[in-house]
């Protein structure tokens, strides 16, 4: 290893190889569940340097763990002893932005918020948006196929990509940075690497789609009696607005009560409490009264039909921010509760109410007093089915039951034809569940692709595949 690190230091120059205590900002698990113990952290500045690093590590048989902003939740960038952590943070250039072609080409280390800002600077929108956008990077977003709050309108990360640049496990560089909207010349190889979490190659740059910036935004907090009413409202709003809906977030009352009890925030904007809420946002390319009228008409009809209990619109940007704070506070509330067990799952949209009801009943039977607080992007079927411990139960005793809790939630998800990972990836934490979550033929194909591209198994070993 010392000989390899000497070669890598000569290649990467000052600051390119980080060891010892200086690795602390990179070598950690965001959820503090696993230890990350690489032999060194490598910080290349270009695709050519990444290719040279991969070639040298391949020759030495040393595993590489790619890393972006290190905001992942599934242990995908945790490095074991003997592995090297390849952090792409210094590769942070916007290589090109084309407002007429509606594209941006960014290096893997670009922070997501900076890509959004670059698009806004030419009056365009890059719509990938998630809680960690101030620190996560575009390479990590694509490697995990990140989702976020705007998926219903714009799709997941992979839906926003036109082309990729990838360093393969043998050190070759595949330059697929095409900006073409139509290219029907064989296999669409870019989809192999998005969602692969660095197990097949290292994404070093991407050409992504841009969109017109919205000129009008209408945001409403809507009280509903149950998740079934939320799904009904979703269909009403989509139909009434010509599919102008960009976000549709389901939240339990737990979020408002928890904000007051645990965070000291009074965020309840409606006159009376309700068991469930929807935060809905619609956008249009031109300003005018039509969008608000469409949304109000749909809400009025739902109110008359009993699927809406109350609603309020944001009349200013500050009010909009306050409404979104309710949704954005849910993860923070979960941390304040202590010992919550988290799940990122998806089911067909029509089965979201079944998931919430069935899993809730089964969890109560498993552990009386348990407090589920499912929330999330119901418009695409993605629910963060998080579960807080019963009041008065010790955190350790509760976490000792975490595997049973997860088995209950994931078993219900599979029963309903869903996925055990909607937008957080597999990493190391869910890899063994892949054996029961995926079709055996599907797993065989995945293993065959892995064996073909990375026969030495140096690319992010111990991740994704069981």
Automatic annotation (TrEMBL):
The keyword Flavoprotein applies. InterPro entries: FAD-bd_oxidored_4_C (IPR004113), FAD-bd_PCMH (IPR016166), FAD-bd_PCMH-like_sf (IPR036318), FAD-bd_PCMH_sub1 (IPR016167), FAD-bd_PCMH_sub2 (IPR016169), FAD-linked_Oxase-like_C (IPR016164), FAD-oxidored/transferase_4 (IPR051264), Oxid_FAD_bind_N (IPR006094). Keywords: FAD, Flavoprotein. SUPFAM superfamilies: FAD-binding/transporter-associated domain-like (SSF56176), FAD-linked oxidases, C-terminal domain (SSF55103). GO terms for molecular function: catalytic activity; FAD binding. It comes from the Bacteria. Residues 34-213 form the FAD-binding PCMH-type domain. Its cofactor is FAD. Signal peptide: none annotated. The keyword Acyltransferase does not apply. Pfam families: FAD-oxidase_C (PF02913), FAD_binding_4 (PF01565). GO terms for biological process: respiratory electron transport chain. Belongs to the FAD-binding oxidoreductase/transferase type 4 family. This is FAD-binding oxidoreductase. It comes from Aerophototrophica crusticola.
């Amino acid at each position: 290893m010392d000989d390899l690190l000497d070669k890598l230091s000569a290649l990467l120059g000052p600051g390119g190889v980080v060891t010892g205590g200086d690795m602390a900002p990179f070598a950690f698990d965001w959820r503090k569940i696993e230890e990350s113990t690489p032999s060194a952290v490598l910080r290349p500045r270009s695709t050519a340097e990444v290719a040279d690093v991969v070639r040298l590590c391949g020759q030495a048989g040393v595993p590489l763990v790619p890393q972006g902003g290190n905001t992942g939740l599934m242990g995908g960038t945790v490095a074991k002893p003997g592995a090297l952590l390849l952090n792409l943070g210094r590769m942070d250039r916007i290589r090109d932005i084309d407002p007429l072609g509606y594209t941006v080409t960014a290096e893997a280390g670009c922070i997501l918020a900076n890509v959004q800002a670059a698009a806004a600077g030419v009056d365009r929108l890059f719509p990938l948006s998630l809680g960690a956008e101030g620190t996560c990077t575009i390479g990590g977003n694509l490697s995990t196929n990140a989702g976020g709050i705007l998926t219903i309108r714009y799709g997941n990360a992979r839906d926003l990509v036109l082309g990729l640049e990838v360093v393969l496990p043998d050190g070759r560089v595949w330059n697929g940075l095409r900006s073409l909207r139509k290219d029907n010349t064989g296999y669409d190889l870019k989809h192999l690497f998005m969602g692969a979490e660095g197990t097949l190659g290292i994404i070093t740059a991407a050409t992504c789609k841009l969109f017109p910036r919205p000129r009008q935004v209408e945001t409403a907090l809507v009280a509903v009696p149950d998740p079934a009413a939320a799904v009904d409202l979703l269909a009403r709003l989509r139909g009434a607005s010509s599919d102008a809906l960009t976000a549709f977030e389901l939240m339990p009352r737990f979020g408002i009560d928890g904000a007051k009890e645990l965070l000291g925030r009074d965020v309840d904007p409606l006159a009376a409490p309700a068991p469930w809420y929807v935060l809905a946002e619609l956008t249009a390319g031109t300003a005018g009264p039509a969008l608000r009228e469409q949304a109000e008409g749909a809400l009025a009809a739902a109110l008359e039909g009993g699927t809406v209990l109350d609603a309020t619109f944001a009349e200013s940007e500050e009010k909009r921010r306050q409404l979104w704070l309710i949704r954005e506070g849910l993860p923070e509330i979960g941390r304040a509760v202590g010992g919550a067990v988290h799940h990122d799952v998806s089911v067909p949209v029509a089965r979201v109410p079944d998931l919430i009801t069935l899993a809730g009943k089964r969890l109560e039977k498993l552990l009386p007093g348990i407090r589920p607080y499912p929330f999330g992007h119901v418009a695409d079927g993605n629910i963060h089915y998080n579960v807080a411990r019963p009041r008065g139960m010790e955190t350790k005793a509760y976490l000792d039951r975490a595997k049973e809790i997860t088995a209950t939630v994931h078993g219900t998800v599979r029963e309903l034809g869903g996925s055990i990972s909607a937008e957080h990836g597999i990493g190391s934490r869910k890899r063994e569940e892949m054996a029961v979550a995926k079709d055996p033929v599907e797993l065989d194909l995945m293993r065959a692709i892995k064996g073909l591209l990375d026969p030495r198994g140096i690319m992010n070993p111990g991740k994704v595949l069981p």
